[in-house]
# Entry
Amino acid sequence: GETKHGLVMGHTVFQAIVQLEMEYLKPIGLGILGPEIESHQIEKRLEPYAEKAVLAVYTMLKIKKDIYEKEE
# Structure
């Protein structure tokens, strides 16, 4: 078939991560290259995607901290 396995896997992994975040109330960063990325594109995109995933977790932790401090 024409199934784009990378796309299917990306959605599946993302759903599992969201479930874990909700269960444990902890942010998880995810940076996926693709789903149709060419091998020559990987190195150029790797670091920026990783940085964005780390920044997303940092931002979520900061927001969570700010919310808890307001509740106190």
Summary: The mean pLDDT is 88. The chain has two helices and no strands. The chain has one domain: 5-71. Helices lie at 5-24, 39-71.
